[in-house]
Amino acid sequence: MEVISKNNNIYILNEKEFEPKNIFENGQAFRWDKVNDGYFIVAGKYASLIKKLDKKEINSLDFIPSNTNDVVVIENGGTLLDYEGFWKNYFDMNRNYTILRNEFMEVDEHLKQACEFGVGLRVLKQDLLEMIISFIISANNQIPRIKKSIEKICELKGEKIRTYEGKDYYLFPTLDKLSEITEEEFNDIVKVGYRSEYLVKTIEMIKNGEVSLDEIIKLSYEDAHKELCKLMGVGPKVADCILLFGAGKDIAFPVDTWVIKLMNEYYVDNLKSMKKIKEAGVKIFKDKAGLAQQYLFFYAREHKIGNRKG
Description:
The protein is α+β, with helices and mostly antiparallel strands and 310 residues long. The chain has helices at 20-24, 55-59, 80-90, 97-105, 109-117, 128-138, 143-157, 175-178, 183-188, 195-207, 213-218, 221-228, 236-246, 257-266, 274-285, 289-303; strands at 2-6, 9-13, 32-35, 38-43, 46-52, 71-75, 160-164, 167-170. The protein has a 6-stranded antiparallel β-sheet. A hairpin with a 2-residue loop joins β1 and β2. The N and C termini lie far apart (47 Å). The relative contact order is 0.12.
């Protein structure tokens, strides 16, 4: 793999394990729009188009070696310093996903199938506060509505960063700015319904130091999970999503409807308890259970895996 910066764009060369669709359309991130054959995202302080170039586009760039087949561009992503300081961690580029998938494909035929389908999936390392707010909103909700609500929060209290294709994009608000949003605004403008109370209380608890985000990053998975579950609107599944996508806890194994279906299809016998399914997942996939779950989840959702027959 090679990384080149040119005209404030970052180009990642010869990395086969990078498919924007498989990264952004698997339920781990909400601040993206599908635009111009790519994904326009807001992450950290950046608003960038992430796109995999086709051969014609690669050949049009005179600074890209002619024998290069795989190129991902982070448009407006900055310099190599920005890559090292943000994007490398955000896209989990320190992890060799080819080795990871090969290890998973040795586990069993089901995970092998999912890993073969999900080539290029990467588990993002996102901001912890943003993940807490996002996944509280996500509970019993649909992705288009979740995305819209998070956009409204950013428009209300975030700093405008860029206009792209006629749409304004905003940074995710700071904790202080989030604390200015009233329960009425969460309900009437952000339109999160009963979650309005949860968000106001959770933001207050974090601001008051009742739950420390710095500590959650440092704590073991079990202790971090207990801490997060103190927050209003954070149950076991939401806590696992937050820990997997916002705290780098690879063992976190979120269990939703699709995971219940696929686990019953392949690994357990008529189990409906989310707690027991999670325990089974961790027992089978061990310390990288959450990463395995992402391949299985993506495969199950795309193939509409149902409950085991008979």
